[in-house]
Write a structure and sequence with these properties.
With 292 residues, the protein is α/β, with parallel strands linked by helices. The chain is built from 8 helices and 12 strands.
């Protein structure tokens, strides 16, 4: 992940916004570090900082129960527990399960009515759907509110310069991941990339395909936006011992119910005796399904 260590200019803002911006940015860094390994040894903050009074709006792209954003929320709540005068307003946008084109206009109207007499000092947005929503509607809903973001994929940091925001960009090192996979499995020559049509899914697909030319002659890239379990079964039936599978983290609706990437891996494991090699951001947690 990449941290934008130099916050972009915010212009005139309240002392509460200034202080809480520093606190929230530090907390998100701590959450990111904790996900990757042990937390920092010294996370002490001054008593003056802990006296901050502020209202924070957290726009969570997804839904309660989605592990990635649940951990972010857990980290924020834990870090803010010492700040008795800071209130965290959490809004689940549910954009992993339902299309933004249908839901965003409803959310705009909801937030206008719900918060018409409420003021916030800062907004936190996690992942691309909430970020894109804020870019399109944030200024109209809450003019000039500073933003802290995290979990953004396929975003050019230069596009964020001189804007009212700072945060963490999530850049997966796809090239290094594939090089390790090929060192471990030198006979592999085909990469099937399985994802969904969500904002984040498409962004990560772009990141994977961006390195395609660097593996010319070594790997054939086969992108797949999963639309049915039948299609998944066909992919597995067509796979040979030279195929790598890159699973993009997703939560998508197939044949009337929602499936996560982990559940798809479980289905593949149960339905085939073929040994396969899954790679991707979350596959370390599911390595036991790499074949029978």
């Amino acid at each position: 992940m990449r941290l934008m260590t130099r916050p972009t200019p915010f212009g005139t803002r309240s002392p509460a916004a200034t202080g809480i911006l520093t606190v929230i940015t530090s907390l998100l860094v701590s959450v990111a570090v904790a996900m990757a390994g042990p937390p920092p040894a010294n996370d002490a903050l001054s008593s003056a900082a802990k006296s901050i009074r502020a209202n924070i709006l957290y726009l969570n792209s997804y839904h309660d129960g989605y592990a990635w954003s649940d951990e972010i929320l857990e980290g924020l709540r834990s870090g803010l527990s010492s700040y008795s005068a800071v209130e965290l307003q959490v809004e689940y946008m549910d954009l992993k399960r339902y299309a933004s084109a249908h839901i965003a206009p409803l959310l705009v109207n909801l937030y206008k009515r719900k918060f018409q007499s409420r003021t916030f000092d800062l907004v936190v947005v996690s992942d691309n759907p909430a970020f894109e929503f804020w870019k399109a509607h944030g200024q109209a809903l809450f003019p000039d509110l500073p933003v802290v973001f995290c979990g953004l994929n396929d975003v050019d940091p230069a596009a964020l310069e001189n804007r009212n925001m700072t945060g963490i960009i999530e850049n997966v090192d796809v090239e290094a991941t594939l090089n390790v996979a090929l060192r471990l499995h030198p006979r592999k020559n085909r990469l099937v990339i399985i994802g969904d049509a969500s904002t984040t899914g498409i962004s990560i697909m772009h990141q994977v395909l961006a390195v395609k030319d660097r593996f010319a002659g070594r790997l054939t890239f086969v992108p797949c936006i999963l639309s049915s379990l039948k299609e998944l079964n066909a992919l597995m039936a067509d796979a040979s011992d030279t195929t790598l599978f890159y699973f993009i983290p997703f939560y998508t609706q197939l044949e009337g119910r929602f499936y996560s990437a982990t559940e798809i891996l479980e289905i593949v494991h149960r339905s085939t005796s073929r040994r396969f090699t899954p790679i991707g951001p979350f596959c370390w947690a599911t390595a036991r399904w790499a074949g029978k």
